[in-house]
Design a protein that fits this description.
Elements: H1 30-39, H2 46-56, H3 70-80, E1 85-93, E2 98-105, E3 110-118, E4 121-125, E5 129-131, H4 140-143, E6 146-149, H5 152-167, E7 180-183, H6 193-204, E8 218-222, H7 226-233, E9 240-244, H8 250-256, H9 265-279, E10 283-289, H10 297-308, E11 316-322, H11 336-348, E12 353-355
Parallel strand pairs: 4-7, 7-8, 8-9, 9-10, 10-11, 11-12
Antiparallel strand pairs: 1-2, 2-3, 3-4, 5-6
Helix pairs in contact: 1-2, 5-6, 7-9, 10-11
The structure holds S-adenosyl-L-homocysteine (SAH).
S-adenosyl-L-homocysteine binds at residues 134, 136, 138-139, 184, 188, 221-223, 244, 286, 288, 321, 323-324, 326, 367-368.
């Protein structure tokens, strides 16, 4: 490769000894919420009311929970709805329809989430870890290393906060709802599998137990932790899977996505194909186009051939991402001409291809730019 790259070690284990985030009703199943209140000497039947406030009414102030007796309201709220995170800063772009929020978690860890409103839909891009241990050299999050896994409730709360902002009409376009959630913020969702699955369940559980979203509107993006992709296929929740491939050959992918030294291109793609087979959901292949690194015409041909070798029943599409700038990286996005040729070659071989819009670049809120610095 032309530029020498800083290589960080891959990290799977989260650093120990920081304590756990407060337990919140979004961490728990409805039955567990009831048990939790009873453990605290509070009436279990109040759990349903608290869930309604949180998931259906999107209430964040105890004062608004007037159906709870004043005498136990504070205890109920601190028992199941403890404060999880504090917004430190919100940056806006696209006339306020793109909003990046920096959050401080209970232990001082920082994460970011991004709300993107389009005509007819609104997507919340959430973080699943504070930092990331996957060390991809072109991603700002990967350059900062892993601080810790996030809890289920910390993940869900990012979506609920976006839902509140939309329902209160704080985002231009009138009151609205979150229609899509993408696990494409900070972190590797499959390296925090249990909490991420919990969050997906809370998002899809019907109200008031959860947010009642459609699994089809949820995308889990991964560098390709093969055993976790297989596990996800068995969960019976048909979320969309996105695989961050970025190169069709092991030589280059070993450098761009270091986990490739553990699970090779063909293993990651095969797992994605299995996922599509099992769930009947079309898989998305993410490919950041980096000038003179992975944007050659022959790599487009090879990418199409690799994908087509698993079948041509429309199991896959490619989402190209023009590289977003990150601090300290000399790599840049491909020339528009090379990008066009890349698209043309994939389509010529029958691969449906889209080029992702780069919302939020000017607020460092686009793919690979989330660094969560104060
Ligand atoms: N760790 C998961 C979730 C993050 S999703 C994953 O890698 O899939 C963020 C997406 O943006 C990934 O596809 C990632 O590879 C991509 N990305 C990272 N840095 C980027 C950059 N500088 N420009 C464009 N895309 C980038």
């Amino acid at each position: 490769m032309s530029e020498p790259i800083k290589t960080l070690p891959l990290v799977f284990e989260e650093p120990k000894g920081r304590g756990k985030p407060p337990r919140h009703l979004a961490d728990l199943t409805p039955a567990e919420r009831k048990e939790r209140l009873e453990e605290l000497g509070l009436p279990g039947f109040r759990a349903k009311q608290l869930s309604t406030h949180y998931f259906s009414r999107l209430v964040d102030s105890p004062d608004a929970m007037t159906d709870l007796p004043a005498g136990t309201r504070d205890a109920l709220v601190s028992g199941l709805l403890p404060n999880l995170m504090t917004p430190l800063r919100t940056l806006e772009a696209d006339k306020g329809t793109t909003r990046k929020t920096l959050w401080k978690l209970f232990d001082g860890a920082l994460v970011e989430s991004v709300l993107m409103r389009y005509p007819g839909r609104a997507t919340m891009c959430v973080s699943s870890q504070a930092g990331c241990g996957m060390a991809c050299p072109f991603c700002a999050t990967g350059q900062g290393g892993l601080q810790r896994n996030m809890s289920t409730a910390e993940i869900v709360e990012q979506v609920v906060a976006g839902a509140r902002a939309l329902s209160r009409g704080e985002v231009p376009g009138g009151p609205g709802r979150v229609s899509n959630v993408v696990f494409m913020g900070m972190g590797e969702p499959m390296a925090n599998y249990k909490a991420v699955i919990g969050a997906v369940r809370r998002l899809t559980d019907p109200a008031p137990d959860g947010l009642g979203m459609s699994a089809r509107g949820i995308t889990v993006s991964t560098v390709g932790l093969v055993p976790r992709i297989e596990q996800l296929a068995d969960e019976g929740i048909p979320v969309t899977l996105a695989l961050s491939l970025h190169a069709p050959d092991d030589e280059l992918r070993d450098e761009l996505v270091p986990i490739n030294t553990r699970w090779k291109v063909h293993e990651a793609v095969e797992a994605a194909w299995h996922y599509a087979e099992k769930t009947k959901r079309r898989v998305s292949i993410e490919y950041a186009l980096i000038k003179d690194i992975n944007d050659q015409a022959w790599r487009a041909d090879l990418l199409a051939d690799v994908l087509n070798s698993y079948g041509d029943w429309g199991w896959v599409h490619v989402n190209l991402i023009p590289l977003n700038p990150t601090p300290g990286s000399k790599w840049t996005a491909s020339d528009p001409r090379d990008e066009k040729e890349f698209v043309r070659r994939l389509e010529a071989k029958g691969i449906p291809t889209t080029v992702r819009d780069t919302r939020g670049r000017e607020i460092d809120g686009a793919c690979g730019q989330l660094a969560a610095a104060e």
